[in-house]
Sequence to fold (279 residues):
Amino acid sequence: MTHHTTPKHPTAHLAAHPTSAYAPRSEGHYASSALTRGPWHPDHQHAGPPIALVCRAFEAAAQSHGMTHIARITSNLLRPVPIGDLEAKVTTVYVGRNAGHFSAQLVADGKEVGVFTALAQRENEFSLPEGLPGHPLPMVPRLPADSSPAYFPFSGRQVGYSDLVETRESQGKIFNGPCAIWFRLAHPLVEGELPSPYQRVAVAADSGNGISAVLDYQRYSFVNSDLTINLLRRPLGEWICLDARTWLGSNGCGLAESALYDEHGLIGRATQSLAVRKL
Fold:
């Protein structure tokens, strides 16, 4: 087995790196750092970190009702999220015996920039019968320790999302069509906190359309206006893999879909609706 040391990132020479994506302020309020910056505009966040921030709020609301598994998050991204102060507001819609439904708003500069829903489930011990079709759960081709370092094509230009995460190639090449890429948070999501496995998934899952891009991002825009994550079980460990591919229609629309894995196997799926245009 080949072991790779953590690669030196192209922007590692910058001394003024933030140490987390967000710093907490008052209840539900956060200050964003440059680590959230996305590739499309220098003042706008990559959608992964703010979705993970809302996921964190959903987890807290669900756990207060004894719901410990986040089975689904749907994110409707209304506007670009500015790199500034954010407020996350969660509402409990309905909680039953086995499942709870929650909604949330993300607000920046007094404007609603995203609306979200989540399904949380109550976990219980369950022994799977032997010999079930499709089980044990499928694995990715190579685990993180056997995978080569990968870099986003926009790495090193400004401090941003590519500094927040470490990436490795399990299969294929990043930004070159279908590929399987491992993600690990290189910095905390929220200052002073260890990110939960669900937050790690949310940070990574919004990158499916990027890593599996089939168009040149300097000539075309293929931004997603939503993200839905479905998880069949609780993720384990620091590494999350997206086995992603992009499908494009002839109407300026598209779909990116990712199978999600941890080091123990399949954990779920993510989908994104894309708006495609020439720059």
Observations:
- The helical segments are 48-63, 161-164, 197-205, 208-211.
- The CA atoms of residues 169 and 181 lie 5 Å apart.
- The longest strand covers residues 265-278.
- The chain has one domain: 22-123+139-278.
